[in-house]
Amino acid sequence: MSIKNNLLEIQATLPEHVTLVAVSKTKPVPDLQEAYDAGQRIFGENKIQEMAEKSEQLPKDIAWHMIGHVQTNKVKFMAGFVSLIHGVDSLKLLEEINKQALKNNRIIDCLLQMHIAEEETKFGLNEEELEALLASPSFQGLNNIRISGLMGMATFTENKEQIRKEFLYLKTVFDALALRPKTNNFAPEIISMGMSGDYQIAIECGSTMVRIGSSIFGNR
Ligand SMILES: *Cc1c(COP(=O)(O)O)cnc(C)c1O
């Protein structure tokens, strides 16, 4: 199967309200170009350096999503061009993104990453931390970021019911947030959940954005 065929096959199964992020981390530029030529315009990377280098070499109408864990000292290397940052899980990081966005005269869309998996190692906020972040005076003063939704990663398991439970939990948290008044830096619309192994379940649970790598580009 070619990258193009994989992509078209997946695209055909996605409902219209679900956006596909093609996760191209570790893959060479010609692979991304092939996906681009097949119509894909949103690419996800998990390393800032790699994303910056690829963005230099590929067409300018690509929307680059940072899906990995972000170190605050590296935000400046993507602030000029990144389209959406999925893995924001601290106020400190959000403050740095805001600072670098301001320098670039931009507003950067961010998703807050929630901890939904059983594993201890995954990054993300719990509900209490989410509340504290949103309620903090510091957050309310950030004018160059926008919280445009939530992101989560389910436990790496074969147990589909476990995965479903975790995605439904994220959906519940999102639905409660979406009832709140929108502000200039808070307008939740996106639920980023679902990868190659579990995106069908994620869509059944209300995902609006799936991040798919190996099913498009092959194993890493
Ligand atoms: C690598 C990665 C993906 C894509 O994983 P696949 O299983 O290859 O589809 C999605 N989300 C995040 C955060 C990732 O790091």
UniProtKB/TrEMBL annotation:
Its cofactor is pyridoxal 5'-phosphate. One of its GO terms (molecular function) is pyridoxal phosphate binding. Gene3D superfamilies: Alanine racemase. It comes from the Bacteria. The keyword Electron transport does not apply. The modification N6-(pyridoxal phosphate)lysine is found at residue 25. Keywords: Pyridoxal phosphate. InterPro entries: Ala_racemase_N (IPR001608), PLP-binding_barrel (IPR029066), PyrdxlP_homeostasis (IPR011078). Residues 2-219 form the Alanine racemase N-terminal domain. Transmembrane segments: none annotated. Pyridoxal 5'-phosphate (PLP)-binding protein, which is involved in PLP homeostasis. Belongs to the pyridoxal phosphate-binding protein YggS/PROSC family. HAMAP family: PLP_homeostasis. This is Pyridoxal phosphate homeostasis protein.
